Structure formats: structure tokens, C-alpha cells
Amino acid sequence: MKKSKRIITATSAIFAASTIFSLPTAAAENPMLPAYQKLWSGADETKYPDGMANPKDLHSRFISEGQDYSWSNNLEKEINQSLNKISFGKLAAKSVSCRSTICEVMLKIDKASIKADADPGKELTDFASDHVYPIAQRNKLELTTVISSSPDNKSVGSLIYIYAPKS
After folding, report:
1. Would residue 40 count as lying in a domain?
2. What range does the domain containing 34 cover?
3. Inside any domain, residue 153
4. Which helix (H) or strand (E) segment is 69 a member of?
5. Residues 30-79: pLDDT tens digits?
6. Which of 3, 80, 111, 158 is most buried, taking the most CB atoms under 10 A from its CB?
């Protein structure tokens, strides 16, 4: 039976100001971190669709895992190559990091670089479905994506987790 292609997204205003909390040094140096702290702290009240893993739980899993370079290096390279295919807007910032069973991808796109009649959330969702989901599928991994806009409406971001299902 052919498995259907699916991508689950949730939209929320997770770029809002948030409380600082302690994270491992590597994550603290990530320039996209402030955009997602509200989500990770549990202060985000988004109701996620059935079947969608909670990004807070995925982030906790991500920061608790050690690095498996044999698993992560090729996957990081493949994800970075797919991000170079973003053509609907200017990629203002990105971060790709994989551990031993999970990757965390953070993107920020300037809305001014996107066509006025385009829907940035749909563009990011379509991009993830067309370019990132196939990576997950080839590697027998799951994918969860959260799309959000900044409060000033000048940028749109995507937080993507690619991960091995828990057995």
C-alpha cells in the first residue's frame, strides 16, 4: 500500500516576547533561539492537531540527546542542501542541527522578500512538504513543522523537527 504524503503544521504567534530559561550552551548560542523560547517553555497555548507531536516535547528530546556524527552529518548536509532551494523569499536566518535520532531546523524569512499576493505560511508549508518531507520519508523519519509570524509582521519562521519515531 502506498503511504500518502502528509505534513502537519500549526500556526501561532511564537515570535512574541518570552521568558528566558536555561538551555545547554550550544542551543543558547543559536541566533534563532529567542523566537522559539515561548513555544519550548510551555507558555505557548497552541492546540496541536491530532497526530502532531508537541514541539516542546520534541525540543526536550533534542536537547537531551547526545550527538551521533555517523547519523547526523549526512542528514544535516542533505537538509542544508534542500534549504538552498527556497525560492519564494529571502532566507534571513537558518539553523540545522541533528543529534542521534532527531534534527531541529529553524528558518526565518523576511516577508518583504515574498511576493505581496503570496501566503508566507503556505509557501513554507509547501516548501517543507516538497523538499524536507522527502528527506524524512527516505530515512524513515517523522516530520513536524510549526509556522509563525513575528508580531511586527516583518518575518515568518518555521521550526521543523525530523525525528525517528519512538519505539
Report:
1. yes
2. 9-18+29-163
3. yes
4. helix 69-83
5. 445 555 666 666 555 566 666 778 888 888 899 999 999 999 999 999 99
6. 158
